[in-house]
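RETRY 2/3 - previous attempt timed out on the joint model. Re-submitting the same 233-residue input unchanged.
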Amino acid sequence: MKILYFAWLRAQIGMAEDTVDLPKEVTTVDQLLEFLISRGEPYSSALADRNVIRVALDQEYVKGDAALKDAKEVAFFPPVTGG
Amino acid sequence: MVIVQQEIFDSGAVIADVAGQSTDIGAVVSFTGYVRDFNDGSPVKSLTLEHYPGMTEKQLEKIEQEARSRWKLTDCRIIHRFGTMELGEPIVLVVTASAHRQDAFEAAAFLMDWLKTKAPFWKLEETAQGERNWVKERQSDLDAANKWKD
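RETRY 2/3 succeeded.
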């Protein structure tokens, strides 16, 4: 699965894009976050505060319990600050 | 119409274009957001906007559709820039046109409030000392967007 990071999450993790083979027990957004955090640094620090992480599946906002199913890309980013 | 671009834009030219399209337009409202030289009390030298190509356009188009469903608009334009901008440069433009002023006024305010909390853009400020800081979400922006919920 393709994973995208933006803004300070991208800077902290040190990459904009990653491809990850998901273990089959990882089926939701929250489980994916836990899986990434379990890989240690830099993920464990960058993704530690769930309150400041927004998630999009195939470019639509979703909550943590959303199923990853057939989604092609998941994006993690901080609260938006455009305008 | 939604345009996401790096280049600078001319608000006046867009407003004139919208107003000149048809004679059933009675009101055109515009909002232009600019790069200002301070934020939270600290001097700012330049601003860089990062965005999520693809999702940005999708979300802005959804916001435009929502505005068109709530108000009677003859036209609606949203231009939002990304990349590095200098002080005084425009960042974002919203233009709405309607037969009567109320629709254009309210839709423009709604578009800006929703755009600020839903469009995937992130501001990175550079201070006069060369420090680079990611701008934090503002509670006042969230409150402004929430007041449009039914």
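The domain at 2-135 of chain B is CATH 3.90.1170.40 (Aldehyde Oxidoreductase; domain 3). Closing ticket.
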